[in-house]
Amino acid sequence: MDENGNAVLCRDVMKVFGRGDAQVQALRGIDMEAGLGEMTMLVGPSGSGKTTLLSVITGLLDATAGDLVVLGERPGRLSPEERILFRRKNLGFVFQQYNLIPALTAAENVAVPLLADGRKRQQAVAVGKAILDALGMSHRVHALPNELSGGEQQRVALARALIHDPRLIVCDEPTSALDARTGHAVMELLRAAAVRPDRAVIIVTHDARIFPFADRIAHMDDGRIVNLEVNGKKGD
Prior knowledge:
It is built from 6 helices and 10 strands; from the N terminus they run βββαβαβαααβαββββ. The chain is about 30% helix and about 30% strand. Strands 5-6-7-3-8-9-10 form a 7-stranded mixed sheet. Strands 2-1-4 form a 3-stranded antiparallel sheet, with helices on one face. It is α/β, with parallel strands linked by helices. About 40% of the residues are buried. The chain has a domain at about 5-95 and about 165-235: Rossmann fold (3-Layer(aba) Sandwich), CATH 3.40.50.300.
């Protein structure tokens, strides 16, 4: 965290793929903050750089230039091993396609991050069940993914992202596969369960229906942030 209460701070962040004639500038000098206690959305057309920016913030890609601080760390200065440990401890991911393991129950899917961290299976699954219960899914803890609705699978994915108490949660199109009512319910759940004073949430989305849930909306186009709305107010 920096002194201004930001979980993420980007200053002139650039990302270039390829070399020479094949070079593509995916990010062209990104300046952005994601505040603790806030939900920030990255929006814009396909190819505008949203997912690339999210990948740089989470350390899945290295920035080509600029300064990036995530929860007080500069990912570019961490070794590959340190970066993996940093993500495992501090980041929670909610994916567009849920990425649930078909052969595992809902509770077992939720427990995966704790199992990866060396927690005993019985203890990890018990914690998974408790989180699912808190998210209104106590009656589905033993169900397999193919027995769950889209909204229920998204709740399992959210529970999995929350189980290790991360300080930054990132979501890639969390409502794109959901109808309006279910998407609204998932966002209310995400807002209630994930947004708190010591945590930040960043969402990549095309879904304008969920924009009212955001504290900040960064509108991207051609690798740049072209407009920023903070608490519903537009800025430069």
